Amino acid sequence: MAKRLVKNSVILAAVGATPTASNAVDISDAFQPSFSTKSGEYKQFDGKMGTTKTWVDKDYLSVSGTISAFLRSNGGGANIPKLDEMFKMAGLTGAAVDTDSDGTNDAYVYTPNSDELANGEIIWYLDGIKRHFTGVSANLKLDFEVGAPAKASFDIQGYSDTPVEEANPSVTLDDNDLLVVTSMQAVTLSGTTLSVTSCSFDLGNQINEIYAISDKSFYRSDFTAKVSITEKVGSDIGYWAELLSGQVKSLEIELTDRAGHKFVLHLPTLSYTNVNESGTDELEATREFIASNDFTITYM
């Protein structure tokens, strides 16, 4: 008997429609979700021992897991990025924008929205087994580590149907350049370039569930975006004074692919929450912030 291979995996994702082969997500890691049912035990008292039985809600099978993908350019201009459907599932709205007012859209910009039910559908194929997830909400995390491709992670929650046998579809994956975080990329905090080793962004979607008669859904009740930057420390340790005085900062992370196409995470309003120092040979500092809802993600 042939073995099921976890590497033979295909993920399709869409918001507002059932995803097709054109909605393939180019994943960077194997998708390994968890499933949960509503079930329990009860006893039937018939005068004997060992009468415990179980019950299961046949209409409830929830799924959770993380879909990870390397960040790639959009090929330049106002092209829609291949991760667009996943960004929408996480509560971001994208639009083509004319940044230089020349009458031609030259960028695609994402901003956070307040749509609680910005959920979608995911179809997951694993070596000829198909599962269809509905009512999916997601949280977005971005990781930038110098010397590695930037990565997006989508923590999803939704509902699964019963798996069926169906061959993996043929899909076209994202052939745009990876956005590699190199020492030549720019990370600036309030206009000052930092010697950063890593940055992380967590949109912080608070995902809740309604499970009632005629109403079964996951939804976003709020979000609290958090940012962490780790840097090599030189002679300037002014971050302690900034933390204690409650200074508001701004952060911009700009990545460029080999063809000059850009990805920019712009966080104009950051409030300090903590500073940590570590290291034995070289001192490193990690600054932690909460970001306001005026951030943007720009492809151009």
Question: Care to describe what's here?
Answer:
With 300 residues, the protein is mostly beta strands. It has one domain. Helix content is 4%, strand content 54%. It is built from two helices and 21 strands. The protein has helices at residues 84-89, 239-245; strands at residues 9-14, 34-43, 52-70, 92-97, 107-112, 120-126, 129-145, 148-149, 151-160, 164-165, 180-181, 186-189, 192-193, 196-202, 205-212, 215-223, 225-232, 248-256, 262-278, 284-291, 296-299. The strands form three sheets. It has a 17-stranded antiparallel beta sheet that branches. Strands 8-11 form a two-stranded antiparallel ribbon. The mean pLDDT is 93.
Question: Topology of this structure?
Answer:
Layout lengths: L8 E6 L19 E10 L8 E19 L13 H6 L2 E6 L9 E6 L7 E7 L2 E17 L2 E2 L1 E10 L3 E2 L14 E2 L4 E4 L2 E2 L2 E7 L2 E8 L2 E9 L1 E8 L6 H7 L2 E9 L5 E17 L5 E8 L4 E4 L1
Antiparallel strand pairs: 1-6, 2-3, 3-9, 4-5, 5-21, 6-7, 7-9, 7-10, 7-14, 8-11, 12-13, 12-18, 14-17, 15-16, 17-20, 18-19, 19-20, 19-21
Number of helices: 2
User: Which structural class matches the secondary elements?
Assistant: mainly beta
Radius of gyration: 23 Å
> Helicity, in percent?
under 10%
**β content, as a range?**
over 45%
Distance between the termini: 49 Å
Tally of discrete structural domains: 1
Order of helices and strands: EEEHEEEEEEEEEEEEEEHEEEE
